[in-house]
Design goal:
The protein is built from 22 helices and 24 strands. With about 675 residues, it is of the alpha/beta class. The strands form six sheets. The chain has a nine-stranded mixed beta sheet with strand order 12-11-10-13-14-15-20-24-23, sandwiched between helices. It has a seven-stranded mixed beta sheet with strand order 5-6-4-3-7-8-9. The chain has a two-stranded antiparallel sheet with strand order 1-2. Helix 3 (about 75-90) packs antiparallel against helix 4 (about 110-125) and helix 13 (about 385-395) runs parallel beside helix 15 (about 420-440). The radius of gyration is 37 Å and the shape is elongated.
């Protein structure tokens, strides 16, 4: 008895065994004939000639008098004429060159035209000397019937061959372990992927259904695979399939989902332990194409962050940057390079890139020259710790705007090297501010972090000192404005968790998470850079000095949830294909971050997405003295002295000095 799968494909039974053996014999015969190409082509033409003669014979029996008015004794004569026409006509239309296994609608015109020519010529020859009993209309209908029968016979052979092979292919996969998959989006790529699967007996996939974003497509089918629901029912569909022992292990995307769609897909995939992969974008032929992992771009990162992208008005930003001289420090880093590209895109009159890493500086210089060939770019190797060199560069550049992104930011690394942290994050920022003042620039924007709020790390404490210094300078009512922008973790930046997770997944795992309850605020690099230049506009257009610009980043996200989503995005299953290992909180880390400390007042910005942190801070004299003390300790003190000094000047900084006395474990 024949049994069928839910998608209509033959599964088992005597008939399936017959098809399997028949397909194997056909494959053997085809390979044998393929060794002699001329024999194979002749066999195809012979088949087409025979089915054309058979169709002609049927018409002759159905319409003996109406058609040509010939008797049965003329039948051999009729078939001889038809057969003699078939060989040259079918060769002329190259019907023998069609590969039946891949026959498609595009091959149909050739068959229709070839059969029409054969029927037309046959009627011309057979009408000579014959007497029809019917009229012209009846004769025309007979000709059309003859053409239809011949075309149908030619198509039947090709489609029948396809049907037999398509029915046999799933049977050949039954003995192997197959992956049951769901497909997302019932479009052209979905149809092409399913067609490629039918053509490849070695493909270990079994499509059990399709999920589409259009609810009106539900209960329809694509190549016999049913559309089971829209995205809102993805989880329910998986559970329903599991109840009938057809649970999918993978969701294959046949088109790039929108950000909202991807968020739904990720949530369902993590909850139901589904891998996610995408069909290759290079699909161009009807052949089976393997799926691949999804490339992690900014849109996907935003979906991982669990919120919609934040859009800021670029018009005032363009006004503040266009035609100006702009200096970007740390231009080779993740934030600095994106800032540099953004400024070049807006159209500054001169862009000076500063970095102490030759290779990173060269990379961003080449990228900007390639993408913005008209931009006036100057790449300068300079260490912000060198105040004299920095001032020389600034005096030559004469910037209108300084975007200060240079810093040491890797928390555990900085924790083990507090002297270097003070030199870069504190002394370096002071040097940049002094050079900005000396060069007569209109504004400097400093990039800070939420780790500066109630810091538990050297990195956060040094960034808080830099914040206090810029706040004091801005309140000092100089001609130059000093702004600070504070945001959370930047997804995709160098050293951030996304590249680390990606590398761990590519190496086979495990993915390491320090604590299952650890949360962070997240934003993408483009969002961070737009916030930096937006804070410039806010400062220049507002005389309320000493405030820190903060982006409303929504709710914090669990790191372990991002680990799950990254594993799924790479076509793996958390806990099965890739393990997640809890390693423990590292030195300097906190379970969660906040954007404002207790001494700061949160006030509304110009838009609901922008917030401002207002605090009394420290006077310029007080913070200058603190920085001078830190600079002196660098020369004469040790790490413990540096940390103690930071504790004395940074509110909320709590640190275990024992760690610095025994940093070997770091």
């Amino acid at each position: 008895m024949v049994q069928f799968q839910a998608n209509g494909r033959v599964e088992s039974g005597r008939f399936s065994s017959f098809l399997t053996y028949g397909f194997s014999f056909g494959r053997w015969l085809r390979r044998g004939l393929a060794r002699k190409k001329s024999v194979l082509l002749a066999a195809v033409v012979l088949h087409d000639t025979l089915v054309t003669c058979a169709a002609t014979y049927i018409i002759f029996l159905l319409l003996p008098n109406v058609y040509w008015g010939l008797g049965a004794r003329h039948m051999p004569y009729v078939l001889a004429i038809v057969a003699g026409l078939c060989v040259p006509v079918y060769f002329a239309f190259k019907l023998q060159c069609q590969v039946w296994r891949y026959f498609s609608v595009r091959d149909l015109p050739g068959i229709l035209c070839a059969s029409a020519v054969v029927v037309f010529l046959a009627n011309v020859l057979l009408s000579i000397g014959s007497e029809r009993s019917g009229g012209q209309f009846e004769f025309l209908l007979s000709v059309l019937a003859h053409w239809f029968f011949v075309s149908f016979a030619l198509l039947a052979g090709r489609l029948g061959w396809q049907y037999v092979i398509d029915a046999a292919h799933p049977l050949l996969r039954d003995s192997q372990r197959v992956n049951r998959v769901l497909l997302f989006h019932a479009g052209a790529n979905c149809n092409l992927w399913l067609r490629g699967l039918e053509l490849n007996s070695e493909a270990k996939f079994e499509p059990v259904g399709i999920i589409d974003h259009r609810s009106d497509y539900v209960d329809r089918t694509v190549r016999q695979v049913p559309i089971l629901g829209d995205l809102s029912r993805l989880g329910a569909v998986v559970e329903e399939l599991a109840q009938i022992n057809r649970r999918p292990t993978e969701l294959i995307l046949t088109r790039h989902p929108s950000q909202e769609e991807l968020a739904l897909i990720l949530n369902a995939a993590v909850k139901h332990n589904l891998r996610i992969s995408a069909v290759r974008t290079s699909i161009a032929t009807e052949s089976f194409v393997e799926s691949e992992r999804i490339e992690v771009d900014h849109g996907i990162l935003q979906a991982v962050a669990g919120r919609a992208p934040i859009e800021l008005d670029m018009a005032p930003i363009e006004k503040a940057i266009n035609g100006k001289h702009v200096v970007v420090t740390g231009a080779g880093g993740s934030i600095g390079s994106e800032l540099s590209k953004l400024v070049a895109e807006i159209g500054c009159s001169k862009l000076v890139l500063i970095d102490n890493c030759e290779f990173n500086l060269w990379k961003i210089e080449q990228a900007i020259k390639k993408e913005f060939p008209d931009a006036q770019v100057q790449a300068t190797i300079c260490d912000i710790r060198d105040s004299q060199r920095l001032e020389t560069v600034f005096m030559q550049a004469r910037p209108d705007v300084v975007l200060h992104a240079a810093a040491l930011k890797h928390v555990p690394m900085v924790e083990a090297n507090p002297v270097e942290a003070v030199l870069s994050n504190v002394i370096g920022t002071r040097n940049v501010a002094q050079a900005t003042l000396a060069s007569g620039a209109k504004a400097m924007v400093q990039v800070s972090t939420d780790k500066a709020v109630n810091p538990s790390s050297v990195m956060g404490a040094t960034k808080r000192v830099a914040e206090l210094h810029c706040q004091a300078l801005d309140r000092n009512r100089t001609a130059t404005r000093f702004m600070t922008v504070r945001f959370g973790n930047v997804l995709g930046s160098s050293g951030s968790l996304i590249p680390v997770f990606q590398k761990q997944i590519e190496e086979g795992g495990p993915v390491t998470v320090t604590h299952p309850e650890m949360t962070r605020f997240f934003m993408t690099i483009p969002e961070a850079c737009k916030l930096v230049v937006h804070s410039l506009v806010l400062g220049l257009n507002n005389d309320d000095r000493g405030n820190i610009t903060v982006l409303d980043m929504g709710e914090p996200v669990k790191i372990i949830d991002i680990a799950h989503q990254m594993i799924v995005l790479n076509g793996k299953r958390p806990g099965k294909d890739i393990d997640i290992k809890i390693t423990g909180i590292r030195p300097g880390e906190k379970l969660y971050e906040v954007l404002f400390d207790d001494s700061e007042e949160c006030i509304d910005g110009p838009t609901p997405l922008i917030l401002m942190a207002r605090s009394t801070g420290k006077s310029l004299e007080e913070i200058t003295q603190t920085i001078n003390e830190l600079e002196e300790l660098i020369r004469i003190g040790g790490d413990d002295d540096i940390v103690a000094a930071l504790q004395g000047c940074v509110p909320g900084y709590v640190e275990h000095l024992s760690f610095h006395r025994d940093r070997g474990a770091a």
